[in-house]
Design goal:
The complex is a heterodimer of chains A (108) and B (120). Chain A is mainly beta and 108 residues long. Helix content of chain A is 0%, strand content 45%. Chain A is built from no helices and 9 strands. Chain A is globular, with a radius of gyration of 13 Å. Chain A starts with 8 loop residues before the first strand and ends with a strand. With 120 residues, chain B is mainly beta. Chain B is 0% helix and 51% strand. Chain B contains no helices and 11 strands. In chain B, a hairpin with a 6-residue loop joins strand 5 and strand 6. The chains are: A mainly beta (108), B mainly beta (120). Chains A and B meet through strand 3, strand 7 and strand 8 of A and strand 5 and strand 10 of B.
Chain lengths: 108, 120
């Protein structure tokens, strides 16, 4: 089955830029989606189709996808961005939905 | 507004069964595909099953295939997950999730989850 690889943790100071990677074989051929999950809460979609934002998600959240790596970029990081972030794709070879292992973003 | 409310979780012994429900409101339930996604304590998200809006297409993660059954009642705007032969490793928060419409394959709405604990 398709595997997505994320770094377990990323740390960034407030006001700086955080980049969270999601690696997969030729992931650039898939549409990648990103979710934010804060402690005790359900996940929330923050980026879909590589780089689109749902309504209500700040422009500080952006995404890119090429080759074997997709990236979620959070600009001007705030304390409230501290959360777990998951990438997700649909594996059309197996009709399975796949999540990355998640990345814990810590705001220093 | 879109609302998904799960129920039916609890503590159950290994080998027993449990049926989860997800009541939907605020949109046309029959027009969407739905999934169950679970999260073991302190772990990441794991997709479990999908039931599309059209036809009766269902898919399952390998670890639950043959034990879990996803179904829906469009007249009651409700999604179900019948879980049989439960194992300790099925312990998790189970989320009811709506798939965005059209050809998209992402999840645009999540319930708050219902906790299933399998323990002797």
């Amino acid at each position: 089955s398709y595997i997505l690889t994320q770094p377990p943790s990323v740390s960034v100071a407030p006001g700086q830029t955080a980049k969270i990677s999601c690696g997969g074989n030729n992931i650039g051929r898939n549409s990648v989606h990103w979710y934010q999950q804060k402690p005790g809460q359900a996940p929330v979609l923050v980026v879909y189709d590589d780089s689109d934002r749902p309504s209500g998600i700040p422009e500080r959240f952006s995404g890119s996808n090429s080759g074997n790596t997709a990236t979620l970029t959070i600009s001007r990081v705030e304390a409230g961005d501290e959360a777990d972030y998951y990438c997700q794709v649909w594996d059309n070879n197996s009709d399975h939905w796949v999540f990355g292992g998640g990345t814990k973003l810590t705001v220093l | 507004q879109v609302q998904l409310v799960e129920s039916g979780g609890g503590v159950v012994q290994p080998g027993k069964s449990l049926r989860l429900s997800c009541a939907a409101s605020g949109f046309t339930f029959s027009s969407y595909g739905f999934h169950w996604v679970r999260q073991a304590p302190g772990k990441g998200l794991e997709w479990v099953a999908v039931l599309w809006s059209e036809g009766n297409n269902k898919y399952y993660v390998d670890s639950v295939r043959g034990r879990f059954t996803i179904s829906r009642d469009n007249s009651k705007n409700t999604l179900f997950l019948q879980m049989n032969s439960l194992r300790v490793e099925d312990t998790a928060m189970y989320y009811c999730v709506r798939e965005a419409g059209g050809a998209d394959n992402y999840f645009d709405s999540w319930g708050q989850g219902t906790l299933v604990t399998v323990s002797s």
